[in-house]
């Protein structure tokens, strides 16, 4: 498959486009962000945008507070009460969630950095390798951490260099894209433009091979225990329409209501690439499969977006118009080992290496 590569100015950074006859991907080096994914629809003979972000506006990309398309880290997910103990030392991290917890690495974390990048183009492989070195104690996390995620088939590679003042740290780096397979209406890049809202993802069919969910409170702070999803609206093993149970307040216990839950992938093995999720829109028949080596699939339906949304600046997307299917380690993993798989890496002994692959088809027949 032949790719065309374009690198364009994007605010203080760059927007890198990777294009084929059937797929277009836009990547911003600010936040190592997936800014656009466009699928060519053969029946309609048109390109359909399926990623909720801001590819026309660097200013909105940088101002966004909902992690749209960014690389979350260095320890994404949650750190309960913004503290954890490692090798007998207690560390205190940024309290950027309700003044109590750490969310997605803290203030000015990976999602707010201008990453270095290089376009990788060989006879067998294409992608963009981003790079960022997080200093010791950034956001309260110990150890210098070198991260080099490669995106198209996303491979995460992070390690502690020999020069680091500390030799261990928790790591949970993943992408936080919002998907809408119904398609995103064409977006005007002018700052005062009003965007048309995409159709809600409530109509999406979703399957996730997970028989357990990590027990957590309303803010998705986990207890370290697992609950069975059998017979509940969190049971996606046979596939179900998202909207069937998205309003079940008693079950989902989120405010605003919706899915925001870390599901435990059945049969997970360290390093094994497995199918984690598949979703389909009844409007476009676009399907997306997510393969990953991570142990957890976090399902999120953009519950914290406004409803209704004006479509203007700051309210580009309404509640439930995007869906996160986010392979990762379990939230607050540094505080719950060995109940959760370990997210700790050590200098010279282990590194953070995980893979994620999103595959798009139309009518589940033609691979993108």
TrEMBL record:
Q: Which family does it belong to?
A: Belongs to the aldose epimerase family.
Output the InterPro entries linked to this UniProt entry. Aldose_1/G6P_1-epimerase (IPR008183), Gal_mutarotase_sf_dom (IPR011013), Galactose_mutarotase-like (IPR047215), GH-type_carb-bd (IPR014718)
**What is the organism lineage in this UniProt record?**
Eukaryota, Discoba, Euglenozoa, Kinetoplastea, Metakinetoplastina
Give UniProt keywords alphabetically: Carbohydrate metabolism, Isomerase
Q: Quote one Gene Ontology molecular function term.
A: aldose 1-epimerase activity
| Organism name | Leishmania donovani
- Single Gene Ontology BP annotation: galactose catabolic process via UDP-galactose, Leloir pathway
Protein name as it appears in the record: Aldose 1-epimerase family protein
């Amino acid at each position: 498959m032949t790719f065309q590569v374009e690198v364009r100015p994007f605010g203080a950074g760059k927007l890198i486009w990777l294009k084929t006859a059937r797929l277009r991907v836009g990547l911003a080096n600010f936040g190592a962000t997936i800014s656009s994914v466009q699928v060519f629809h053969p029946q309609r003979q048109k390109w359909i945008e399926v990623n909720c972000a801001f590819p026309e506006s660097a200013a909105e990309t940088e101002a966004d507070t909902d992690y749209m398309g960014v690389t979350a880290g260095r320890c994404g997910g949650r750190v309960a009460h913004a503290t954890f103990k490692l090798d007998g030392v207690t560390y205190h991290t940024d309290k950027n969630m309700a003044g109590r917890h750490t969310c997605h690495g803290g203030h000015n974390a990976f999602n707010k950095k201008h990453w270095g990048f290089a376009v990788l183009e060989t006879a067998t492989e294409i992608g963009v390798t981003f790079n960022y070195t997080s200093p010791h104690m950034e956001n309260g996390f110990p150890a210098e951490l070198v991260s080099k995620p490669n995106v198209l088939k996303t491979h995460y590679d992070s390690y502690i260099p020999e020069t680091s003042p500390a030799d261990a740290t928790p790591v949970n780096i993943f992408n936080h894209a919002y998907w809408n397979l119904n398609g995103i209406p064409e977006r005007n890049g002018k700052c005062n433009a009003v965007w048309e809202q995409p159709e809600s993802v409530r109509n999406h069919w979703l399957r996730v091979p997970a028989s357990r969910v990590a027990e957590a409170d309303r803010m998705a702070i986990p207890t370290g225990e697992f609950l069975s999803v059998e017979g509940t609206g969190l049971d996606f093993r046979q596939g179900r329409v998202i909207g069937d149970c998205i309003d079940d307040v008693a079950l989902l216990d989120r405010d605003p209501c919706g899915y925001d839950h870390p599901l435990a992938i059945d049969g997970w093995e360290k390093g094994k690439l497995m199918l984690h999720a598949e979703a389909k829109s009844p409007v476009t028949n676009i399907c997306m499969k997510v393969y990953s080596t991570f142990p957890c699939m976090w399902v999120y339906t953009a519950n914290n977006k406004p409803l209704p949304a004006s479509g203007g600046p700051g309210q580009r997307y309404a509640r439930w118009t995007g869906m996160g299917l986010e392979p990762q380690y379990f939230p607050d993993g540094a505080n719950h080992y060995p109940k959760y798989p370990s997210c700790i890496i050590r200098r010279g002994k282990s590194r953070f290496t995980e893979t994620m692959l999103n595959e798009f088809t139309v009518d589940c027949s033609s691979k993108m």
